[in-house]
Each structure stands twice: as C-alpha cells, then as structure tokens.
Design brief:
Elements (H helix, E strand, L loop, with lengths): L3 H11 L2 H20 L2 H8 L6 H23 L4 E3 L4 E3 L11 H26 L3 H6 L1 H21 L6 H19 L9 H27 L3 H17 L10 H14 L1 H20 L4 H26 L13 H4 L5 H30 L6 H14 L3 H21 L2 H4 L4 H12 L1 H12 L5 H7 L1 H25 L5 H25 L7 H15 L3 H14 L2
Helix pairs in contact: 1-5, 2-4, 2-5, 3-4, 4-5, 4-20, 5-7, 5-9, 7-8, 7-9, 11-15, 12-13, 12-15, 13-15, 13-17, 15-17, 15-25, 17-23, 21-22, 22-24, 22-25, 23-24
Amino acid sequence: MQSPIAALTWEILQRKQRWIWLVAALIVGAAFFNLWVPEDIQRDAASNRATGFAIVVSIANQIAIFTSLLLILAIFSYTELNAQTDAYGFPHRLFVLPVSSLVLVALPILLGVAAIELVYLSWVILAPFGQDGTTQLPLTTLLLGAYMVFYQTILWTFSRLRTIRIIVLGVLAFFLMAVGGMRSFPGDHISDNTLYARIAVAMVASFVAAWMYVTRQRTGGGFRRELLSAAVNGLADRLPRRMRDFTTPSAAHFWFEWRRCGLLLPGCVGGLLLAAVVPLAWYAHDDPSTTFRIPLVAVAMPIVLALSVGKAFSKPDFWSSDLSLPAFVAVRPLANQEIVSIKLKVAAASTAVSWMLVFAFLSMWLPLADRNTFSYIRAALSPIYGQSSYVLMALSLAACLLLTWRFLVNGFWTGLSGNQKLFTATALPFSLIPLELIPMFFLLRRNGSIRTWIRNNPNDALFVLECVLAVAVIAKLCIAFYSRKRLRSYFAIWIAATACVVALAVMLWTGARQVVTLEVYRLRDVLILTSLLAIPLARLGLAPSFLERNRHR
C-alpha cells in the first residue's frame, strides 16, 4: 500500500510532467552544446570581454538557465482554483489526506527548493559562468532556495490578490537580485555569515507563515477570520459612498471601470512608496549616491508597474482570465467606441493619480536630501542647455507620464478582441526578446562580431535603424488612416502628446550632437521617428472593431 507522503509527492510531480521533461531536455541539450563548443570560446564566453561566437554561446546559456528556472517555478506553483472563493490557492482537496498540515506544506516547499537547487547546480557544471559566478555560488544558491520558499508562501497566503501576486513576486525577485549584487541589505554592509543567517531566518519565518495559514484554512478559518471579515466589512460601510445618480451612461461606466481596475496602479505605487522607498530614503538621506538613486526609482516605478499592469488592464475584466466580454458590460447602452474611450480616460486618471503620489513624495523628500548631487547635474546640463534645462526636465516628466499611460492602453486591441491566441502571441515577443537577439547577431555580424561592425560602421547601423523606424511609422499611419472614423476625437490628443515627445527628442538631439561623432541629422531623424511611435494611434483605432466582434459573438 502506497504511503500518503509518496502519494502526495507523486501528486505534486505528475501534474506537470511535460514541463519536467522540458527542463531535462534543456539541460541535456545544453550539455551537448557546451561539449561541442571549443574550450577557448567557453573561456571567452565566461569573461566580460566576449566577442563573436562567444557572445552567442553566453546568451544561449543564459536564456536556457532562466528558462529552466522559470519552468521550475511554474512546476511548483502548487495552486488550484477554489470554487467557493474564486481564487487560486493551496489545493483544498488535499486537506482530506491522512497527513499533518506540516507535511502538506513542507513537502511541496522541500521539493521545490531541492529542484531549483539541483537545476542551478547542474547549470554551474555545464555552463561557463566565469570566476564571478563561482565566487557568488553560495549566496546565489541560498537566494534561489529562499525565493522558492517566498514564492510558494505568497501564492498560498495571498490567493485573493490574484494578479497582484505577480507584481509582488517580481518586486521580491528584484530585491533578492539586488541583495545578491550588493552582498548586503540596502544601506547595511554586513558580513557574509550575517547575511546568510538573515536570509535563513526569513526563509523559516516564511515557511511558518505558510504552515499557519494552511492549518487555519484546513480547520475552517476560525474565529479570527470572522473578526477580520467583520472589521473589513464595517470599515467598508463607513467609507463615503456615491449618493447621487449618474447623469449619463458614460459616467456610470467610468465609475464602474475606475472602481474595478483604475485604483490598482495608484495602490501599487503608493504601497511600494510607503513600504520600500520611504524607509530607504529616510534611512540614507545623507548618502549622495542614494540621493541620486531615490528619484530615479520613484520616477521609474509607475512606468515599470504600468508595463505589468497594462496587460491585465487591457482585458474586458481585469480580474478574470476569460477574455469574453461580460454580459453586464455587453448589454450597456454604450457604443463600442464609447467603451474604449472610457477605458482610455480611466487609464489617464490612473496615471495622473499615480504620478501625483510620486510628486508628493519627491516634494517632501527633496528638501531633506543632499543637494550637492543635484548641483552636479545642473552644472552638467547648464553649458549645453542653459536656462532650457528646466524645459528639458519638464518635457522629460511629461514623457514619463505619457509612457505610463501608453503601457496601460497599448494592448486594448488584443485584450478586447476576446482572442486568447492573439492576446498570448502579442506577449511572446516581450518574453522572447533574448531569443530574438541571437538571430540578430548572425544576420548583422560582420568581421566576427556585431560590436565590431557597429564600432566600425556606426552610421551604417544608424541608417538601418532609420529605415526600420520609417517603415514602422508608415505602417502606423496607414492603419490609422484606415481607422480614421474612430480616431476623430482622439487625433487631437495624439498630436499634442506626440508634439511633446518630439520636442523632447529634438532637445536631446541638440545636446547629443555636441558629444557624438555620428551623422547628426540622421541621429535627429532616428529620434523623431522613435517619438512618432511612442504614443499609440493605429492600435487604438483597431480596438473598437475588435471589441465589436467580441461583443456580438
């Protein structure tokens, strides 16, 4: 008779057997590939001065490493849909197994840690990491195991957050990579043994939190859960509510979309500011290097978060994996173009509120920061731009706002289409960017290396880029002309926003022409063509027609 632990182990591993075989195939394929590569090329690939075919070897190994690690995380994302809560969490059907809750939690976590460590150590043996990779081996191994523990704990304990869990896991991954790069916690230089001890304590605390949460779920939630629900419901009842009727159907739908998904980006920005940026800024406000990094992190935060939130924001229902239009929205007395227009306004409001939070933080923190760093920046810009440096800063901030809004609305035409294959296909190029770089190395490589070719022929490379951008602009304008009837109200906004980005590009070119040796007018054309592609136009024109097919199918 099979033991419960063996049955649970088989249950965890057999759910995604194909992915396990794919990881094994990646490792075996990399082993044969690296055996075929000569030793001198492997040494060059492991160094920081790799050129030619050694670059391709290094990129291929890095892609395979990250792909296998992501597959391991996907294999051990041990969650299932709970029909009662409509959330993906720990499988409730396993609660009937004759094992303790400690075993239910410990076995998936131990298997996940063992799998990710085994895969990483296999790559250490197979792939050329170089001297730096060997010295970082203990810390990297510990961080990978810690991330697996945090990963499963977050998936189980924050099941109701759904898509937000991905953002939390991404932020956690960047934090652990920063710890691995600095070999210390931010602002705190400590010994390796102390760092290892802190990471181990965090792993144990995460495991205990997952164990307690699953135990409480297994016993029905308990009295504390009822108190928490009552407190949340009581707080929601006391919040101000809308008491007036909506004047138009558009106003009602705007309120619905805002409450449904418009608050997510400001909530994420505000939460990260309070939880991470504000404590770090207060702790290291006298450090000149931190004085320069804090504004960069605060400004980049809405843009990076919009890039991840925008994919779900473009769907008819933010919190659902189903791309079909909900009946509650489909029967509304609104035209397809009005629905798209309202989502654009919600994205604009969400962007505005997010950046208001960033500006509020910077306005309170900058008077307390070290001003010498900003004096150096002003001194570097003044000889080039003079008094126009303030105009450059204003245009840069405006471009950041427009870029945030762009990432939120850029995928409307695929998200509202209801076509799952199209929606997935448009996301693949972003996830496969490293794979797309390898053919580029073979197609453009001359004299042994793309770096050598660009270094020897920079104007030729700039001409190729200019031609590609020109074709993209022509295609964009042609599609926009085809959808011109749907873009009448939006066209003036596009012209104003694009004019702002073009003005920034011209100012950047004015400064760059004094320091670069490229053909300055060709560089100007490249910057202007890039700015013409920055604000979406053609794809927003296609969104109403795609929504119409989804609405009436």
